[in-house]
Structures are given as C-alpha cells and as structure tokens.
Amino acid sequence: MEFPSFLVTLLVVLSLFSLSTTTFAVVDTIRPSEILRDNNNTAILVSKQGIYGLGFFTPTATSSKNRYLGIWYNNITVNQTVVWVANRCEPIKDSSSSLTINNKGNLVLFSGQSNNRVLVWSTNSSKQAREPLVQLLDNGNLVLRDDKDANTTKYLWESFDYPTDTMLPGMILGWDLKRGLNRRLSSWKSSDDPCHGDLTYGIELDEPDHIAPQLLIRNGSSILYREGPWRGVSFGGTSNYVSVFWKNSGYEFVHNKDEIYFTYNAQNKSLISRIFLSQTISYMRWVEEQQVWESYYRIPGDKCDIYGTCGANSKCTIMDDKPICQCLQGFEPKNQNNLSQGCRRNSFVSCNDKEKDVFYLTTELKVPETKYTWASKSMKLDECNAKCLSNCSCSAYGYNSNLDGSISDLAIGTECVLWFGDLFDTRNPKGYGRKQNLQKKHLLVVMVIIPR
Length: 452
Prior knowledge:
Layout: E1 29-30, E2 36-37, E3 45-46, E4 52-57, E5 68-73, E6 82-85, E7 98-101, E8 107-111, E9 118-122, E10 132-136, E11 142-146, E12 155-158, E13 166-167, E14 172-176, E15 181-183, E16 185-190, E17 193-204, E18 214-219, E19 222-227, H1 240-247, E20 252-255, E21 259-263, E22 273-277, E23 281-287, E24 292-299, E25 314-319, E26 322-327, E27 331-333, E28 343-345, E29 357-362, E30 373-376, H2 381-389, E31 394-399, E32 416-420, E33 426-427, E34 445-451
Parallel strand pairs: 25-33
Antiparallel strand pairs: 1-10, 2-7, 3-4, 4-5, 5-6, 7-8, 8-9, 10-11, 11-12, 13-22, 14-15, 14-21, 16-17, 17-18, 18-19, 20-21, 22-23, 23-24, 25-26, 27-28, 29-34, 30-32, 31-32, 31-34
C-alpha cells in the first residue's frame, strides 16, 4: 500500500498591495478603522521580519475562482506554501473580499460589496478588547489582542489554536482541558480544496486519568498510525529519525491537569521547517539552494507502521520490505492462510490461579495500544504482577522502573500498566534503533499472561 504525498503549491502573482483604499504599505497589524481587500494573491499583511504573509489566494490545482484567506511563507515565492486557512470550507466566489475588525472587536471576513456584504468567517472571540488589534507574528501566528493590555502575549484569539494541515515551530498540538480545546492537524480535502479532509493528526487521551496519551493519525474514524506514549525524549514506537528530529528541535511535551500537548521550536533559526499532513505526516525543511521542500522523514514509514497490520495479539516485522506477522507466545493464528487476521489464545487463562498462569517476557516491542489500559505511577514489580493476575480480563502488564530518566516506551513517570483484552499494534523495532536501550540499567518489560 503506497502513501503518496502532495505539496500544496500556489501561484504567486506579484502586484502592488493596498492596506485600504488610501494606504499603500506593508504592515503586520489591522486596526478597527482599516479595511483590507483582496489584492490578487499578494500579502496584505506581512510579519515584522517578513517571514510570513497573510492574504487571499486561489489553489493553483483548480480552474475555479474560489478565494481563501490564508497565511504563507512570504519569502518562498517559487513554491508558495500555505500553512493556515481561515475560511477552509467557505470559499469566496470572486475577489470581492474585505477584512476588518467589527464593533465587537472580532476580525471578520466578508464577501460582496459594502451594500451587499455577506459574513464568511470570524474570529468569534467572546472576550472584547478595549482597543482591539490583529497582528501577524513572525512565528506565523495570527493573533487578536488588546493593544491597551501591557501583556502583548495575552491573546483573545489566535490562529495557532485552529491549525489546518501544518504544524509550525512554536505551535501547540494537543489539549487545553480547561477550555475543552483540542488542537490537531487535518488534511486538505484535495489539492484544490482546503476544506477538512479525511486525515487528522493529534493527541488522543486515555480515560479517565489521561496517564498515557498517544499521537494518532486517523483516516476518518479509523486509526492509520499510532505513536506510543511520551517516553521523555520522544513518543514511543517512533523511529530514530523522528526521535533525532524531536531531540534537535527543542521538543517539549506538557502533561498536567490543565493541558496535554506537545510543541517544538527551531533550534537553528535559519532553518525553515514544518510538520505537514497530507497522506502521511512529513517532517520537512526548506532547501534554499534548490528552492524545494525536502521531506526527510515520513510516517507511516513502512507497512508495519500501519495500525493493526497483523491484527490482534500479533507482532509485525519488516523482512525484505514486506510485513511478516507472528503470533505472540501463547497465541495461535485465527486463520493459517491469512496471518494478518490476528491471533487468539491457544488455551484459556486460569483466572487468578498463580499455579497455572505464568507470564511470558517480551522486550524490544512497540508497546500495545493503550486505549484499554490501567496505569499506576507508583507500584512495585510484584504488585504490578499480582494486580494483573487478580483481574480475569488482564492480558499483559508492563513495568518500568526507569524513573532515573533512562528510556522506555511506557509513559514517562508511569511504573505499571495493565492491558485488557486483545493486544493491538505491536511491532518488531527493526529500524527503530532500540538496541541502545539494552545497555540501560532499567528496561521496560511487557509480560504477556499465558497458561502453563
């Protein structure tokens, strides 16, 4: 199964731009007295250092005249790349657009002439500023704030809270639990339609305590790819390429009662990088000499990365570029002719009988799906073992004593995790660079319960 990737390419048409009917200058702000109009694909706002531009565009892959308000890299003109779209699913059919701040202090986008305007999009902030100001920042964030407020980083609304298909340095993906806000990427519907596509990428929470949140790519309601829980330096189950990317990019994961999110910052300010969702997640950087975007890693990276390739209670291994499915010890294939259908127990577990049930140790595997788990941040190994044996639905447990900071694939700060029911989405870490973990003092162990 192949995963083509496309880059959204937009035609740049150079022309003079106008801030209003009487002002001709590049600025980074909009004030209530100003009206900005469609200016034929040229930025109407430019961030202070000229890094990003805000303006109207038509996707080049279409013959329509649909117009969208978006943010793009202002200095990349050969392959103009849109990173955010306001009216994703509400295109304006002509160039009659106007952008201004209304009497409630919100940024509003209209179509039509002044005597026949139709509201297309709004920031819709419930907080009203004394002196509203909209500003395009040099990190690509479009913000609404109160110019009377001495705290210039206190935003009433920001585009970073509503990402499209691109994650920029400094952007947050994840949950604001107080506001019930989930920031996640969603693909374009097609190369000529920025409305929400089928693919999403973001953090999903385990209930009820959110101890082991995971990064998922979904295709509609189905999981396409799963990264394991945060393990201190990256998410579990990621390849060395991605782990190195996180390590070298000022990556940060925040997990508390109010917020669960991750972000990254460009350590090298001269390097233009982004995380882009199309048919895959691509880690991309701009190569100035060649004037192209280079994708230096994509996920899913191989067929074992595809969620559930081998079904339940099975592990996936890449051999000669092909996925090979093998049952976990204590399980047998459901269908000998189709190992991708998963495995079932070859005999029943004797519930709560320590004399008949034992655990099989498995190491160097991507930990199973954590949706149906129970976790403890403080539990001894023998207690974790007994906890699993005492629950007839427990299939396996994982134990991690590495609170000294060494690496495992359990959620950081978590010592004991129990899995219930079938074990999904495990893979052999070939290409995942786990060998170095064998030298660590503390190792993650996953114990799968099997009958004697």
